[in-house]
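User: You have something folded?
Assistant:
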Amino acid sequence: MNCPRIVIAGTHSGVGKTSVTLAVVAALRKRGYRVQTFKVGPDFLDPSYLAMASGMPCYNLDGWMSGRDYVCRLFARVSERADISVIEGVMGLFDGADPDNSEGSTAEIARWLDAPVLLVADVYGIARSIAAVVKGYTDFEPGLKIAGVIANRCGSEGHALWLSESLTAASLPPLAGAIPMDGFPHLPSRHLGLVTADTVNLSRSVLDELADSFENHASVDAVVATARNAPFLEVKSVISLPPKQSKRISIGVAHDAAFHFYYRDFFDELEMLGCMLKFFSPISDIRLPEGIDALYIGGGYPEEHAESLAANEEMRSDIRKFSSSGRPVYGECGGLMYLSRVLETKDGNKYPMVGMIPASTRMLDRLKSLAYVDVTLNADSLWGIRGATLRGHEFHYSELTADPTENTEWTTVYTLKRRRSADTIQEGIHRGNILASYVHLHLASRPEALRYFINKIS
């Protein structure tokens, strides 16, 4: 397929690649382009910004969790409706799941998609040495095309000229832009990344400021030309999904300020299978959607809205009633916290939650877990039969305060192995058709898991 595309990568985290990507997307959209955005890796937060900037849903491309064929098929399917696709990288260009190869990295995705790369570098306090930095990134691994360099936090026009001449003299990719110090508006952050985007922290005026800054200090025309020069992309045919069910299956999905960590392609796959998604708010709605056959409560920030969630006793009661009917209930990370008895915030306050899981959760001052994980089912559950394997990731600042399987009818159905660890952990709290876990699974790339889940509901 002919698909104009470009990857915006960083030399390392914190160089401003999200701001640059948003600025590029905003500038392209301001010129009338239909822009499709993607984010490399498992991140849930950056995609919310990219979606607001483009006006279209953003999709994650994660090589480790979903594999090459799925990444390429997803990219091709979603990009068909766009004039240009912009892919934001993760961490540094070559950072991924392992220290000795590029698995899970931005470089891997760029190679798979045969996409040119704009390399963002923080140039504060650096001059000719930029050439050494860029040469290292250009020569480090074969198969990549670094088409240009965006210098962020540039000191002056003279500084930009020096950087440009240094790259040219070394026969390296050219300087494609030089963003001055404080050239972009500040974007708020929480934990390891941004807060979720909304119209307050990413207003139209902020997007205009980002677009104008890029127009003034870089070449949008050069970005478009580079993207259009990307070669023809060959993509294998899409794997056939199971036929749509004769019965229209309806799934209730929690979606509000407390619960919004979802992969958009998972929803796409469910809808293509004939499922109807009914979104609701555990904060403000007092009842679950009518006629749903299953319930999915994803991750998010329940700790930030614990008081409101606790105050909505009607919703908590309705979820307890639904779970007692035997219909499937799946809680993921923040969903697990909400389904527990009590959520204790960092200030020591305790708030009653749904109370289905016989344990409570508490927030910590430090990161509890950040890792890619392999999951093997040690018993039949919502996503497959015993022995089935899945992949996902953990990222949470909370923990269970007790073992919910001790002296209860609850069991664990996951044998979990974290990346680069030989140890296994028993996880995935399960009872009947209820499953809750701290793991964010990538399910859209597992058609057999979707098939099993749909058959279980129907």
Q: What stands out?
A: The domain at 250-457 is CATH 3.40.50.880 (Rossmann fold). The longest strand covers residues 84-92.
